[in-house]
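Most newcomers find our protein records easier to grasp once they have seen one. A record pairs a protein's sequence with a compact description of its fold. An example says more than a description, so a record of this kind follows:
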Amino acid sequence: MKTKRPLPKFKNVEEESIFWRKHSILEFVDETEILSFLRQRNRSKAVSLRMEPVVLEQAKRIAETRAVKYQTLIREWIYEGLEKEIASERPRQTDIEILTELVMDIGKNLEDLRGEIITTE
């Protein structure tokens, strides 16, 4: 996994919690790598969730059909929800911004090609 910038070293869990309240995961990893990034953070904490028995039973049945533990399945759903939420918070580029970037890239590539042609002549 490639990081956009290195993660700081944390002295304790509290320091890390404060850090993540102020920063976005997207500062450190590409949006497509968020789930992988979250899984690589080895520290995990047990949490307690209240849910209706029927919901828990449905999750257990689905997990059984996928041959995974129901806790693992629920955790996967939480990760997927986080990914979607983070992606929706990311400002989307307008068509004009995308086209502008493409044109700028084409212009840079043309300049690079001109430079290569001149140096080979």
In short: Residues 93-121 form one domain. Residues 3 and 29 are 5 Å apart (CA to CA).
